[in-house]
Write a structure and sequence with these properties.
Layout (H helix, E strand, L loop, with lengths): L9 H4 L14 H16 L5 H16 L3 H14 L2 H13 L3 H14 L2 H13 L3 H13 L3 H13 L3 H13 L5 H10 L3 H20 L6 H18 L3 H14 L2 H13 L3 H13 L3 H13 L3 H13 L3 H13 L4 H12 L3 H13 L3 H13 L3 H13 L3 H13 L3 H13 L3 H14 L2 H13 L3 H14 L17 H11 L3 H13 L3 H13 L3 H13 L3 H13 L3 H14 L2 H14 L2 H19 L1
Helix pairs in contact: 2-4, 3-4, 4-5, 4-6, 5-6, 6-7, 7-8, 8-9, 8-10, 9-10, 10-11, 11-12, 12-13, 13-14, 14-15, 15-16, 16-17, 17-18, 18-19, 18-20, 19-20, 20-21, 21-22, 22-23, 23-24, 24-25, 25-26, 26-27, 27-28, 28-29, 29-30, 30-31, 31-32, 32-33, 33-34, 34-35, 34-36, 35-36
């Protein structure tokens, strides 16, 4: 068992003799210097084997001559090498002679041999004499035995002497107990270079910043905690902590510092953090480098990252490689990612494999995947099983699926349960669902609540709903005072807000909005603009657009072309267009054709058109029979 903490070697932990670990005694300063030199020598990566052997031989000769410090250092050297049999007699001899560092290291050796109680006895001797490293080891021993009061006592002794691992272990113990003093010691350990402490301190500050944000605090505490967290993430990441590098990358990515975020993701990914490799893949994909993204996703997926496996599946699905996509979706599912089953359902649904799609949707839905529950409900509804769809819509909506709440509204509306449907639409609209906001806006218009209707229509229109933009424009249009028609030589008035909304809807292909924009342009005297919008609406199938375009062309002297558009409008059921055609053919002397269109106008209406068309039809009939 390694009692020294995060990736620490024996020399790095401070368990070997350090100046602060000795009680005052004759020759202690000289001993400290000797041991420090030995530790530095042992840590040197470029010392050759000959020099090491010579040093060991020199220490061994001194030890055999009774030099206590040489015994202690030799024992430490052998312990570090893993030669427990050779180290034990040296350390025992030095300990008996009063060397406190040897007592600490003897405890380490005995712990490695599986004698924790005997190890604790020697650690206690060294700790009482002032060894911070021994106090840390003893505190860890008591915590493992479940004796938290004794553990806290010895860890506090170690921490208060400046031992970094003691400070970290004390912070860990206090945090486990929910003691508010944990942060103080975690910070102390972090400030002294403990990378895990820096990471955990950053995580704690991150959570504090999040809770401040959730509470709606505006005193800057949350922002300060977030900035502090980022600095500790940086320190931990700079010391090689891969999870800290991942978190730092996520913070930078959220802020928009993508280049630096990518560097930290890369650092973390190279150290084996699968989530960082996955995140790096998404950054590269967004930058347009799909091939490099796939490399990192593959690396992450092979290390068990379900999100990366899903990303690979989606990439292959986009390329039409459905078998490979399915394989990666299954890998994601095997990694515990419910999105894998959901994506398999989507893949099967796209291929028309409805039965298999339902199977995968159900698997993900039963695991709590809300969008899978919504997709399953849609599939059941399309199959005519409304009763089976409803509970899945409800489950998905309760889990937070905005689409499910909207779909549930459609389901209730189809049954005539408008009140329940409206509540579903309101829930979805509150979560930002565009079409739900439109439905709520229209319901408020029917109720006469124009103020709330306008609020919802603005939300939907602003989110891109052409229908909402048209209805909002119509609402604003009805409020504005009547404007006199444009006269020749008059200046054209500026566009109002309602005109801007009409134009937004028209530019999105809304035919009624296009006709309305054309009418407003005609009222301003802009015949070219009016004709453009009428034509666009007419070509999209608007009979009103075709009729108005015909009127405009007739006024400009292009009656033959106008007749073409009136014919299209009349064929689509426009009574006024049919009446216009009857008049055109009557003037041309084509009485039979005129009578046919007049008869069509009588049938199409509206009432005033039918009345005029009937008189014209009778007159043409009399003329033909004369």
């Amino acid at each position: 068992m390694d009692v020294m903490g995060d990736k620490a070697t024996l020399l790095e932990t401070g368990r070997f003799a350090q100046p602060s670990g000795f009680a005052p005694s004759s020759g202690s300063v000289q001993a400290a210097a000797v041991v420090q030199a030995a530790a530095a020598l042992a840590q040197s990566s470029d010392r050759d084997e000959t020099g090491e052997a010579a040093e060991e031989a020199r220490r061994r000769l001194a030890a055999e001559a009774g030099d206590v410090e040489a015994m202690s250092v030799l024992g430490a050297m052998l312990l570090r090498r893993g030669d427990l049999d050779g180290a034990e007699p040296q350390l025992r001899a030095a300990t008996v002679a009063g060397d406190r560092a040897a007592a600490n290291n003897l405890g380490v050796l005995l712990h490695q041999r599986g004698y924790p109680d005997e190890a604790a006895g020697w650690w206690r001797i060294a700790a009482v004499a002032g060894s911070a490293a021994a106090a840390h080891a003893l505190g860890r021993h008591h915590r493992e035995r479940g004796d938290e009061p004794a553990a806290e006592y010895w860890l506090r002794q170690s921490a208060e002497q400046g031992h970094v691992l003691g400070a970290y272990a004390l912070a860990d113990l206090l945090e486990h107990r929910g003691d508010g003093g944990a942060e103080q010691w975690m910070r102390a350990a972090a400030e002294r270079g403990h990378r895990e402490a820096a990471y955990r301190l950053a995580r704690a500050l991150d959570r504090a910043a999040g809770s401040e944000g959730d509470a709606g605090s505006d005193n800057g505490v949350g922002a300060g905690a977030a900035a502090d967290a980022e600095q500790w993430y940086r320190q931990a990441a700079a010391r090689g902590h891969r999870r800290a590098a991942l978190q730092l990358g996520a913070i930078l990515e959220k802020r928009g510092d993508l280049k630096e975020a990518g560097r930290w993701y890369l650092t973390s990914a190279k150290d084996g953090e699968a989530r960082a490799a996955c995140a790096l893949g998404f950054l590269l994909r967004d930058a347009g480098d799909t091939e490099s993204a796939a490399v990192w996703w593959l690396r992450a997926a092979q290390e068990g990252d379900g999100n990366a496996a899903n990303a690979l599946g989606a990439l292959h699905a986009e390329r039409g490689e459905t078998q490979t996509a399915e394989r990666w979706y299954r890998a994601a599912m095997d990694a515990g990612d419910d999105n894998g089953a959901y994506n398999l359902g989507l893949l099967c649904a796209e291929q028309g494999r409805t039965g298999q799609a339902e199977q995968w949707y159900r698997r993900a839905a039963y695991a709590g995947h809300r969008e899978a529950a919504n997709a399953l409900a849609v599939l059941l509804l399309q199959g005519g099983d409304a009763a089976g769809a409803e509970p899945w819509f409800s489950k998905a909506a309760e889990a937070g699926s905005v689409d499910a709440a909207f779909n549930l509204g459609i389901l209730y509306s189809g049954r005539g349960e408008d009140g329940v449907a409206l509540r579903c639409y309101e829930r979805a609209a509150a979560a930002g669902h565009t079409e739900a906001a439109l439905q709520v806006g229209m319901a408020r218009l029917r109720e006469g609540d124009e103020r709330d209707a306008e609020r919802h229509l603005r939300c939907a229109a602003g989110a891109g709903s052409a229908e909402a933009a048209f209805r909002l424009a119509a609402l604003l249009d009805a409020r504005r005072p009547a404007v006199s028609e444009h006269g020749l030589g008059e200046s054209v008035h500026e566009k109002t807000e309602c005109e801007e909304w009409y134009e937004r809807a028209a530019s999105q292909g809304h035919r009624r909005a296009q006709v309305r924009v054309g009418m407003l342009a005609a009222a301003r005297g802009d015949v070219v603009e009016a004709a453009r919008w009428y034509r666009e609406a007419a070509e999209a199938g608007s009979r009103n657009g075709a009729f108005n375009l015909g009127l405009l062309l007739a006024r400009e002297g292009s009656e033959p072309e106008a007749a073409v558009w009136w014919t299209r409008a009349a064929d689509a059921g426009h009574g006024r267009a049919a009446l216009r055609l009857a008049l055109v053919y009557a003037r041309r002397g084509e009485l039979a054709e005129g009578q046919r269109w007049a008869e069509r106008a009588v049938n199409l209406g509206p009432a005033e058109v039918s009345e005029r068309a009937e008189r014209l039809r009778d007159a043409l009939r009399s003329e033909l029979s004369a």
